[in-house]
Amino acid sequence: MFRLASQLKRGSKVTNLFLLHRNHTSTSLCKPKMTEVSANATAQMAKSSKNESIESNNGPNLKKIKLENAMGAKKANNSRKKLRKFKPKKYDSTSPLGVLQKEIEELLQEHGLKESDVSNDVALVINNENKAEVDAVYHTIVQDVNVLKFCSNGDGLALIPGSPFTDRTHRIVTIPFGIPGDVVTIKIFKTNQMYSESDLLEVQKPSVMRDDSLIKCDKYFGKCSGCQYQNITYQTQLSLKRQTIENAYKFFANSSVNPESESCELSLEKYQEMYASKIRDTVGSPLQYDYRTKLTPHFDISFSLSKKLRKQAQNGSTTTTTEKIEFERPNLGFGVKGKPTWRKFADPSVANCKGSVLDIEECVIGTPVVQEGLKRERNKFLNEYKNYKKGATILLRENTEFVDQQEKEEVANADSKVVKTCVTNPKQIVVELVDGFKFEFIAGEFFQNNNSILPLVIDHVKKNLVISQDSSKPRYLVDAYCGSGLFSITCSTNVNKVIGVEISQEAVKFATRNSELNKIGNCKFIAGEAQEIFKEIDTPADQTSVILDPPRKGCDEVFLKQLSEYNPAKIVYISCNVHSQARDVDWFLKKSANGHLYKIDSIQGFDFFPQTHHVESVCVLSRV
Ligand SMILES: C[S@@+](CC[C@H](N)C(=O)[O-])C[C@H]1O[C@@H](n2cnc3c(N)ncnc32)[C@H](O)[C@@H]1O
Question: What does the record list as coiled-coil region(s) (predicted)?
Fold first, then answer.
């Protein structure tokens, strides 16, 4: 059976991606029905091979098709054609695909399976040039699939008994918009080494978590890649985000305290004491829709025309079909997720949208003024798209303007005196009011995107800065990765002196400007790599707190090492990627020189992005 599979395997190296560690109880799986996508394709294959046989598999109704003769003949014909080798891509372990590998590893452990039970022979698929055959064998429609859990990126994850590959007993599948507890019909469309990707065709039996009546973005939810959770109650969304944090620490912070025995797991009790018991409930966003102060719709133009042809097309003087097609308006919006039929879209063009960008007219998570900006820019685009030679991203950034010009010079906090506008020039200076402070920054540079939750996060950070028993002793704050000074400035009133560091010269200029605007005299900002800050610090470590708010990839070891040597009394680590946060915190505690002197006080999620899978995590560490 499937001898060709093993022939190809010699050319393709299947590496051991997953090491299994944990013991979990197994969950029962409902066996799904698998049907070939195209009966014609199977018939064609039967014609091309006299010896072909159809065998039943351990998954009910799954048919394995013996292809060796058909494929062997093809191989003889193409004997000089080189087989393509499959090389698995390497991912940063804290990126969504890196985390998916950990999630798959856990799923296998829970079901008593090995990597070799589910791995796919990708070389076999990519070397098969017969599309009908590939569709019939690998890209099947599967019914009665139980969605078992959520991946960290909000996709559902399932384990299907049966596989078209020799000696494999199951397949792992990701299902966008599948919710744990759902029983669904899916169409598999892509085979990766350890999992296949699918589209959700139908929800046969909904999960108790699913409530499609909650969907606010009736037009696009289920097709747009922006939101994943609109059909889940907000309370459940918050629980899911807490679960993401729990998983992150379980995946990235469970190695032994002893650096010599790196592969050993931390004992369950120790893990519970150090990490799990510190994770608190996720704090909700006051606004669950209309909250995003920045949106970035984009469009692709996948052709390039000569200037002459472009001019002709603009004048309407081109005649050929290709040229007409080339000048069809590109979609303007956000990335497409899948080809679902589970939602009945009022506008069928949404479901049938071709290409990688979904045409969007409105986005319900944007603030009202950003939504207005989207409409305005879209109308402009409808008139101007022919002038673009290539794709582009349009920035929509909320801005605050003062009705009374004089107010501009003052710290404004009366909402009645301000109007919101939406700017698109990435170089324009914009203003945001946060917690009674005024911030100016460049529209295209980093600034937090949900103003409604910022006062809650700032309050949490402030409460966790070092508190001296002796009030005569000064307190200090170091803000690494300070951006345009959000935490430095808002926390400055609680400490005697703040020093911030930031790699972007432009952001440092604005941090300095913002401290002046807010009449804050105790902040100093320096431009440079985060570790540069340790050259500048002369404050006593016992009276100093350090805030870290790095980009998604987290901190590097050089920085963490110096942080440990500096040995501050408190560390508040804010992160939009809890996986890199868990990795860094674990490295700091177990591998840095003074890490053993610290303990985690709390790990708390803040929901900066309702309706999506994202969560911001704040981890507070104290020197004991
Ligand atoms: C997530 S943002 C946080 C900014 C700020 N704390 C805020 O909330 O507005 C991360 C910031 O780190 C800066 N950054 C990135 N790499 C850095 C490095 N190696 N050293 C210092 N700053 C860095 C970025 O420019 C960005 O402003």
Answer: none
